[in-house]
Amino acid sequence: MAPPLRIVWLGLLVGLMGCAPRLVTPPGGSGAPAPGGAVERFLQLAAAREYLQMGWVFGTAEGPVLHRDPAPEVEQRMYALATVLDNEGYSVGRGVAVPGRVGAAQRFDVVVRQGGAEVVVPVVTVRGGAGRWLVEQVDVQAITARR
Question: Which of 54, 56, 57 lies closest to 45, judged by CA?
Fold first, then answer.
């Protein structure tokens, strides 16, 4: 006697779940050891179009966004950020403490060169788990307002 169709579908679904790709934290860990390093790494990954890797450097004090949100969603958001941040070069200014969050967050003014113009893009980093720093916020309004 053949098994009921529901059991066959359930078995197939369980089998496919075992084949789903697993997200593995990068060898060096998520984020960066220093706040400025998180900004640099994030911009390097954006330039390389490494969207999922960007998700290991972008997050909150609770950790990288890839620990919280589904990978396809993170990949789409990082694609959007990388597209807006596309540039001919950039320089990362000195970090300053964020008022009310001293020791836990720093703000950097990143000068981004796009189409012959320079735009200042504020980027906030935050200390995440294990003392690693993550990019928490990229204020792309300076770029998008120009377009």
Answer: 54
**Could you tell me which of 41, 23, 28, 25 has the C-alpha nearest to residue 135?**
41
Please tell me the distance from the alpha carbon of residue 46 to that of residue 80, in angstroms, as a whole number. Answer: 10
Rounded Cα distance between 92 and 38, Å, is 11
Exposure string (b/e) for 12-43, b if CB count within 10 Å is 16 or more?
eeeeeeeeeeeeeeeeeebbbeebbbbbbbbb
Which pLDDT tens digit goes with each residue over 44-62?
999 999 999 999 999 999 9
Residue ranges per domain, the chain?
Answer: 29-144
**What's the pTM value of the predicted model, to 2 decimals?**
0.82
Residue type, 142: A
CATH 3.10.450.50: does it fit domain 29-144?
yes
